[in-house]
Amino acid sequence: MITPLISVVMPVYNREQYLKESIESILNQTFTDFEFIIVDDQSTDSSWQIIQEYANKDSRIVAVKNTGKKGCFSARNCGHRLAKGKYIAVMDSDDISLPHRLQTQFDFMEKNPGIGICGSWAKNFGTRNDIIELPTTHSEIKDSIFFYCAIIHPTIIFANKRIFYSEEYHSAQDYELWCREIDNLQFANIPETLLLYRRHLTQTNGKKQNDTANITRLRNVKKIGVILSEEEKQIYQDLFSDTFLPQNIKEISIAINIFEKIAIAGKKFGYGKKFQALTKLSQKKILDCGIKNHKTSLMLYVTTFRKLKIFNNPRAHLRYVYHCFRNLLHL
Q1: Sign of the CA dihedral 168, 169, 175, 179?
Q2: What secondary structure letter does DSSP report for 301?
Q3: Residue 232 CA to chain centroid, in angstroms?
Q4: How many helices and strands, by DSSP H and E, does the chain display?
Q5: By the 8 A CB rule, do 3 and 34 touch?
Q6: CA pair distance 49, 65, nearest whole angstrom
Q7: Distance, CA of 313 to CA of 35 (rounded, Å)
Q8: What is the pLDDT of residues 121-147, one digit of tens each?
Q9: Which is higher by pLDDT, 170 or 301?
Q10: Backbone phi, then psi, for 10, in 5-degree steps?
Q11: pLDDT reading at 19 higher than 70
């Protein structure tokens, strides 16, 4: 068999409703030199039958059953072990790759051999309808990925160097992988929409993903030498989970100081301007939490926020004080 230039790997679990559209979006690519490894992860609906039907019609499809531990990322690892291509492209079984996706990414990787992992922008559809625009350069992605997932997983292509996902967690393994490899590989995002990203995340799955992401975020903090107490760890996780509800000035001061320590340590470890901007943005998020604390919001302004100089301009000062007084009037 002639070795394909790209191996597209797609795990499938009970996706009969969307599967045909996803498969056809790959088969209809303008770039044709690929193998399409579809790994069924013990589906109980008609997904496996649909996969076999397409495999019988197109020889580029390699239909396999996941032989490892059950789970999406175990199935992905199974596909990666089978991949023969120079590059591996990731695909999800409910998304749609635009026709020029593989050609665009192949051309980019060929022109930029130093890039290890390349994603792109994507357009949401389903429960949302907007374009996800993410940082494009390695330095900005590195700065951003410390705090959030700055790569859209089903948009990526990477050099076939046997990169595998951790199977320790049940979700957010992609974010864990980016953070693990960010110092070993060069990352990039093509500033072009190459994927239609179906959004139908349930609240339960969202919580699981965020819990796993928080474990990775805490590991990022430790990696730059910032040691957090148990109280600080909880506050840090609550902030990213949007569940931080400060009960007093002490808790807000702790939250502000966490990001002060991260900002200082980040400079020593070579993080850039975007990293510093994101620490400031996190502190502004704490401001919003402070406003919700009706009884102490003005005191916070005088004792903490004003002294730390995290307001950009006089208008920002006035806006905060305005909200403080408005909250007091509604007590």
Answers
A1: negative
A2: I
A3: 23
A4: 13, 9
A5: no
A6: 12
A7: 55
A8: 999 987 777 899 999 999 999 999 999
A9: 170
A10: -135, 115
A11: yes
Give the confidence band of 317 by pLDDT, cuts at 50, 70, 90.
Answer: low
Closest Cα partner for 101 from 71, 121, 128? 121
Site of tokens 């700055």: 150
The residue written with tokens 């926020």 in the block is 305
**Using CA of residue 66, residue 61, residue 193, residue 96, what is the dihedral sign?**
negative
**Separation between Cα atoms, residue 151 and residue 7, nearest integer Å:** 20
Calculate mean pLDDT across residues 89-118: 97
Domain ranges, ordered by start, for the chain:
6-201, 224-329
pTM, 2 dp: 0.86
Contacts for 93 with CB less than 8 Å, ≥ 6 apart: 10, 11, 12, 13, 15, 18, 19, 22, 47
**Tens of pLDDT, residues 192-214:** 999 999 987 544 456 777 888 99
Q: Give the span between the Cα atoms of 327 and 17, in whole angstroms.
A: 48
Residues recorded for the chain: 331
Q: Following DSSP, what letter does each residue of 194-257 receive, concatenated?
A: EEEEEE---HHHHHHHHHHHHHHHHHHHHHTT----HHHHHHHHHHHTT-----SHHHHHHHHH
Q: 6-201 belongs to which homologous superfamily?
A: Spore Coat Polysaccharide Biosynthesis Protein SpsA; Chain A (3.90.550.10)
155 Cβ contact list (under 8 Å, min separation 6): 90, 101, 119, 120, 121, 122, 189, 194, 195, 197
Q: Which two tokens stand for residue 115?
A: 């890039």
Distance CA 205, CA 208 (A): 5
User: Which residue matches tokens 């909880």?
Assistant: 234
Which residue is it, tokens 């402070």? 290
**What pLDDT digit, counting tens, does each position of 230-286 carry?**
999 999 999 998 888 877 778 888 998 999 999 999 999 999 999 999 999 998 888
Block residue for tokens 């975020």:
217
**327: number of Cβ within 10 Å:** 16
For the chain, how long is the longest CA-to-CA vector?
Answer: 75
**What are the pLDDT digits (tens) for 287-311?**
777 666 655 666 666 666 666 566 6
